[in-house]
Amino acid sequence: MTMKAYEGTYQGEKAIWLQAGRYEAVVLPEIGANLIAFRDTEKEYKFLREPSLAEMDSFKERPIVHGIPVLFPPNRYQDGKFPWNGKVYEFPVNEPATGNHLHGFVHNIPWAVEKFGADESESHVTLVLQVREGHSVYAYLPHAFTIRLTYTLNESGLHQDIAVHNEGTDAMPCLLAYHTTINAPFAPNSQPSDYGFKMTIGNRWKLNERMLPTGEYQTLTADEEKMKVGGLSPFFASMDNHYTTAPQNGRNYMELTDSREGIKLVYDVGTSYKQWMIWNNGASAGFFCPEPQMNLVNAPNVDLPADQIGLVSLEPGEVWGERARLYTIDLKK
Questions:
Q1: Pfam families attached here (predicted)?
Q2: Please, what is the Cα angle at 273 between 271 and 279, to 5 degrees?
Q3: Burial level of 201, CB count in 10 A (0-12/13-18/19+)?
Q4: Hey, how many other C-beta atoms are within 10 angstroms of the C-beta on 318?
Q5: pLDDT in tens, 208-240
């Protein structure tokens, strides 16, 4: 099995390419360390939504709905205000329709490539974002910290390891998510109607007109209940929905099954993520976003227990970390 890791380009942008047998992955260090492609080259599967060459300018302006963007802190914050330890951090209001800040500060800026390489069993790349005074992120989150992101590719799929290290002198918020954009269909000869999905959702949060949680749950529909067991189309209804996670058998995951190909794509995200966002672009068939998220949307402004809403605090010297995996299961075997 061929294992390779090398520096190249992707649609004209600097990229690190990983290969492991039939699997291939591409990460863009200078655009938020976005894992822009994960493919099965033998079967011509493209699991993630990738930008075409013509789409690259719009992608760079808004690198959210392709690949696996890293959100830190994720999703929406009311009026751009983020109360923390007796202070209120001010974030730019970049979603005029709701008057909120949206998606944080790390998905559209350069990360450093710390190392990449391959051996007889896998290929890998590690990317680092080091925030110190004077960094663009420090202006909004005034803490010294490092985010280290490693992607590993081997015969069992794509592995993602992330760690946030507080290297400052006071406690910092650690709120993170991925705006993961999954193709449906991912197989070249399949149709959206060939796909059914499952997610480990729990309760659905009620959102107000500004897409912010009210702190209450709303009743799941009959179709949403089906999401827990599988077989439902990811385009059954327009979704921009927020749920708690409810791990099954110790795992927190999304499964997408192509019934025509007899292939199941598994996105196992780890149990540190306490919330899901699900967005499917108004039920427009082609792609959807199952987004694992540590925290409730707008968590610092919600009067609920920190453990319930995933409001994680890192003390000086502490490290938070989690692993996720994308892999396939051949249902015909």
A1: Aldose_epim
A2: 125
A3: buried
A4: 15
A5: 999 999 999 999 999 999 999 999 999 999 999
